[in-house]
Amino acid sequence: MSLYQDFLTRLQQKFPEDGAEMPMSEFICANTTLRKKPFSFEGYEFQRAIVDDMHPNLAVIKCSQIGLTEVQIRKFLSFLKRTNSINGIFSLPTDDMYKRVSQTRIKPIVDDEQVFNQHDPSKKPVRSMSLYQIDDSFGFITGGKEGDATSINADVLFNDEVDLADQEILALYGSRLQGSDIRIRQGFSTPTFEGYGIDSMYKASDQHEFLCRCGCGHWNLPTFTPQFINIPGLSADLNDLSEIDVDMSVKLNLGDSFVMCEHCGRPLELGNIDRREWVPRHPGRLSRGYWVRPFATPRLSIKYIVEQLLDYKRKNSIRRWYNTVLGEPYNDASARLSLTEIEAVMKGEGKIDVPSGTPVAIGIDVGQVCHVTVASLGLSIPVVFAWLQVPSDQLKETLANLRAQYKVVAGGMDLNPYAPLAREVRDESGGAIMPIEYSTSLKAAPLTPVKDELDNITHFSSNRTLMIDAIVGDIRNRRIEFAGYGNKKAIIQTHLQDMVRIELPEQPAKWNKLTGEDHFFHSLGYLKHALRIKQWVNNQEEQEERQMALLFGLATTVQHNASGLDFRSRIKSPSLLGQM
């Protein structure tokens, strides 16, 4: 190396290319490398707008294999470099993911790029798997635990793979920005379900789409649908390209396929940046959103998408294909109750006659407004006939009226957040309505009695996933019916569709909220679990009777009720179910 070249290298190391008006994308290209070459957006020009956008509330839906994680890491590190004395958080859903990304994606960039190593040689920066100091700024790399979301104050927050994270933990992360004047929060994710996570964030945004202008002048939003996809050999009668199967694929000439203009049918120049533009659907909205679809780049071919479709079909995982390859949310039948399934158990809005003294079960979702469901147990299957929305200060009076009118043989309500109220209801009902606490462990037992120091049962701990699975199973298999809901039909349907069942590799399944409007869903879950508690109590009684019979040499025959719901049996006393 000549002295002049050595001088230029040292100068660049000391003074990186930067300027107040330099876009973030240009800073990254000028100061970082990829595979020992200057970083470039060639083939991925759509990334520039996202990288340059430092909007304080930004959400990006993305498909896989489009390099967005790579550029958002560089964007995060570059922001730390270009902004004095700030803290940034780059969060991932799990510890395993954060460790892998930190070690294999972030550390090599920080270690190898001169722009991030211009500190005073006598002052070694603080650097570890979870913390990277760049000059006088700090970047925290975190997983998805509550401690990660509550222990660090930050100015900028990047949430990667939003949909794989615990949504309640993500909400906690927002509080980390409260003390900052910058308060930038940006989320990126492949989608999972409609109305969930990143899809919900995007729908609330200005919704940028990456359009392509044809030579005919028509602007297109190319998607993997028949109006944009030309595959020689494909039947014109096929309206849904996800129906392509192995037998069909044999007849297709995927090598000559192309993305076409929906107006004139000519091939679109996806790689011609002069014909591409990000356009918002709702430019007046306050939050920013981008949707990166597979045809945002010319690098993902139709052949690749079809091959992935066939591969995911072989794995019986069509939702993953929609989510990762197309970058689209998808609600499969097993993940969410459908309107058809709900309608099948809705038998009429009119009030039904339930005679006084009929055995009933009650479920209560507690809040400022409590949602109460009451089911008649006098028929072959439970019939929910009362759907009540009661202010919390009127709950005890409402339940007293129900107990006076019907024979309450089972009841369940959430212990939290109003534990004193739950205990009062338990005591006033003689233990018929028991508090139920969702277990925090995804591997918890279906139902566990919790006792005090006097060995009295105070409440039950329940596996939340199994609890919701149980009521969903009853609805799908029509082992329960709804009636008497009056004008609440739409509300009930909305609540029952507000939960989705998340299944991730090597992790227990979990039901997550979409919007939080799910109160009647949980009320029904508590009702269902109240019946399980009644079965448990009955079984305990039968065991005690057998033990007494053996002890005294009696030949007592214990009568079994096949359903476990013998409504003639006595209501359990408070002494059995516990007092506090």
What can you tell me about this protein's structure?
With 580 residues, the chain is an alpha/beta fold. The chain folds into 2 domains: 12-215 and 275-301, P-loop containing nucleotide triphosphate hydrolases (Rossmann fold, 3-Layer(aba) Sandwich); 339-577, Nucleotidyltransferase, domain 5 (2-Layer Sandwich). 33% of the residues lie in helices and 20% in strands. The chain has 18 helices and 24 strands. The strands form 5 sheets. Strands 3, 4, 5, 6, 7, 8, 9, 10, 13 and 14 form a 10-stranded mixed beta sheet that branches. A hairpin with a 2-residue loop joins strand 5 and strand 6. Helix 2 (24-31) packs across helix 4, helix 4 (68-82) packs across helix 5 and helix 15 crosses helix 17. The N and C termini lie far apart (82 Å).
Summarize the structure in short.
The chain has 580 residues and is α/β, with parallel strands linked by helices. It is 33% helix and 20% strand.
Topology:
Blueprint lengths: L2 H12 L9 H8 L1 E2 L2 E2 L8 H6 L4 E6 L5 H15 L4 E5 L3 H18 L18 E4 L2 E6 L3 H5 L5 E5 L6 H8 L9 E6 L8 H6 L4 E6 L5 E2 L8 E2 L15 H4 L8 E2 L16 E5 L7 E5 L9 H13 L3 H9 L12 H7 L13 E7 L3 E8 L6 E9 L3 H11 L1 E8 L4 H10 L4 E6 L8 E5 L5 E6 L1 H13 L4 E2 L6 H8 L2 E4 L7 E4 L5 H34 L21 H4 L3
Record keyword descriptors for this entry:
Nucleotidyltransferase, domain 5; alpha/beta; 33% helix; 24 strands; 10-stranded mixed beta sheet; Rossmann fold; disordered C terminus; single chain; 580 residues
